Amino acid sequence: MGNLDGKVALVTGSSRGIGRGIAERLARDGALVAVHYGGNEVAARATATAITDAGGRAFIVGAELGVPGDVDTLVAGLDAELGESAIDILVHNAGLNIMGRPIEALTPEEFDRMIAVNVRAPFFLTQRLLPRLRDGGRIINVSSVSTRVASAHGIAYPMTKGALDVFSHTLAKHLGPRGITVNAVAVGFTHTDMTADVLADPANVARNIGLTALGRIGRVPDIADAVAFLASDDARWITGAKLDVTGGVNL
Predict the structure, then answer these.
(1) How does pLDDT run across 11-46, given as a tens digit for each residue?
(2) Is 157 marked active-site?
(3) CA end-to-end span of the chain, whole Å?
(4) pLDDT exceeds 70 at position 153
């Protein structure tokens, strides 16, 4: 895996779960990591402390995404720590899934909220940071297996991730002349604190394992390692791609 010494990375939604795993992995590879959180400052500080205790470098930056002024707040937090320093790696991990809301039940407010967090925030945060994203940098968008596997439990969340996929490959074309790669990572069933309740049901675990070619539920390092690969120089000739990191769900 490539060495990220001297690189600066921003990982949105990295106070816990998959985002925390990504932040810790990038820091282990040498990057200075901005640990972003929306509301849980305690968790963000715990993540940053875990990174520094392991010999890495990190700082926290807070900003609720999907609300007016979100990008201004986040960038102000970056500026307070970095000044006008360039950013090398931008990972759009933060996302909102209002679960168990089929089309018959989803409200306009819920729909708009998911669009705001999952689509609008990555778009305009990228727009703001493009002038300071170093040529040859990396943008990595965390997507979902739900864009290719239809679910009876919700349609809006997969729609937002589908939009993020289009954003990824279109932006890859646009930023190619600058040597910036843009890729997406599709996540499947993964053990995190946010999926703990669902996966506490043995029937759900068995069903999900049965749908997965590699025969187990994903773990956070499975995702973090794939993101670290795309952030490294080893992935320099990969752009506009969507890496399926699901263990082969519904093959």
Answers:
(1) 999 999 999 999 999 999 999 999 999 999 999 999
(2) yes
(3) 28
(4) no
Contacts for 38-46: CB closer than 8 Å, 24+ residues apart: 38/13, 38/62, 38/63, 38/64, 38/65, 38/94, 39/64, 40/15, 40/16, 41/15, 43/15, 43/16, 44/14, 44/15, 46/15
Per annotation, catalytic residue among 59, 111, 157, 167: 157
CB neighbours of residue 118 within 10 Å: 27
pLDDT tops 50 at residue 163: yes
User: Minimal CA–CA distance to 11: which of 1, 25, 3, 50?
Assistant: 25
Assigned token pair, 81: 């720590």
Which residues have CB under 8 Å from 199's CB, separation 6+? 189, 191, 205, 208, 217
Joined together, the tokens standing for residue 199 give: 């996966």
Domains assigned to the chain: 8-245 (3.40.50.720)
How high is the pLDDT of residue 152? 64
- 93-113 per-position pLDDT tens digit: 999 998 878 899 999 999 999
Tokens of 56: 């890495």
How many angstroms separate the CA atoms of 103 and 54, rounded?
45
Please, are residues 142 and 93 in contact by the beta-carbon 8 Å criterion?
yes
- The CB-side HSE value for 58 (13 A sphere, CA atoms) comes to 32
pLDDT digits (tens, 9 = 90+) for 74-83: 999 999 999 9
